[in-house]
């Protein structure tokens, strides 16, 4: 059993979120309550904060998502990033050039962790999500396995993605 450090609720081993308050449970992730962030036009805005407004996790410990949403849990971040409204999202960081990815990871130490300006893409394709390294300098890994640039790989719920040294976990509902 895992005891939530926020509300002291006892949770089943392996859960990512507290079933009572929605706080992250895994030690690799921050243990503060989640905030939902919606990314749909290349801009990010926070929606709600604290346990009362956080997405409620299901019994399996995954935040409840609506159809078409992709959730990214970024290591060390106090919020869950929710992607919706597009078939493909470019993950990267804003630089001096005018290229701004749909998911700008600057706020999560992207530059220091080796994330390229245009690092990888998440693509919804029918009933699956694909991850594609876009020729990044420091590589993309899926569950510890290095991806070949420009080759799409199927992603499953709960998979671990590394962009350089930046760690993310993905969940989705298609």
Task: Give a topology summary.
Blueprint: E1 2-3, E2 10-11, E3 36-39, E4 44-47, E5 69-74, E6 80-83, E7 88-92, E8 103-104, E9 118-125, E10 128-133, E11 140-142, E12 145-146, E13 153-155, E14 160-163, E15 166-173
Parallel strand pairs: 3-6, 7-8
Antiparallel strand pairs: 1-2, 3-4, 5-6, 5-15, 7-9, 9-10, 10-13, 11-12, 11-14, 14-15
Characteristic terms for this protein:
5-stranded mixed β-sheet; 8-stranded mixed β-sheet; 174 residues; mainly beta; 15 strands; 36% strand; single chain
Give an account of the 3D structure.
With 174 residues, this protein is mainly β. 0% of the residues lie in helices and 36% in strands. It is built from no helices and 15 strands. It has an 8-stranded mixed sheet, with no helix packed on it. The chain has a 5-stranded mixed sheet with strand order 8-7-9-10-13, with no helix packed on it. Strands 1-2 form a two-stranded antiparallel ribbon. A hairpin with a 4-residue loop joins strand 3 and strand 4.
Query: Rg, please?
Result: 16 Å
Number of helices: 0
Q: Tally of extended strands?
A: 15
N/C terminus separation: 30 Å
Spatial arrangement of strands, main beta sheet: 4-3-6-5-15-14-11-12
- Mean pLDDT across the residues is 77
The residue ranges in which pLDDT falls below 50 over 5 or more consecutive positions are 27-62
Please sum up the structure shown.
By secondary structure, this protein is mainly β. It has no helices and 15 strands.
């Amino acid at each position: 059993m895992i005891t939530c450090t926020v509300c002291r609720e006892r949770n089943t081993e392996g859960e990512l979120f507290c079933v009572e308050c929605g706080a992250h449970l895994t030690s690799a992730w921050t243990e503060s309550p989640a905030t939902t962030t919606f990314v749909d036009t290349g801009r990010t805005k926070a929606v709600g904060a604290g346990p009362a407004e956080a997405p409620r996790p299901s019994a399996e410990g995954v935040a409840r998502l609506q159809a078409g949403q992709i959730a990214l849990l970024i290591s060390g971040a106090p919020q869950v990033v929710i992607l919706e409204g597009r078939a493909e999202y470019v993950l990267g960081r804003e630089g001096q050039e005018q290229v701004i990815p749909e998911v700008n990871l600057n706020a999560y130490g992207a530059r220091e962790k080796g994330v390229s300006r245009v690092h990888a893409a998440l693509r919804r394709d029918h009933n699956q999500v694909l991850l594609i390294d876009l020729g990044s300098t420091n590589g993309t890994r899926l569950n510890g396995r290095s991806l070949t640039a420009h080759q799409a790989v199927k992603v499953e719920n709960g998979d671990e993605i590394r962009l350089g040294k930046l760690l993310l976990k993905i969940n989705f509902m298609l």
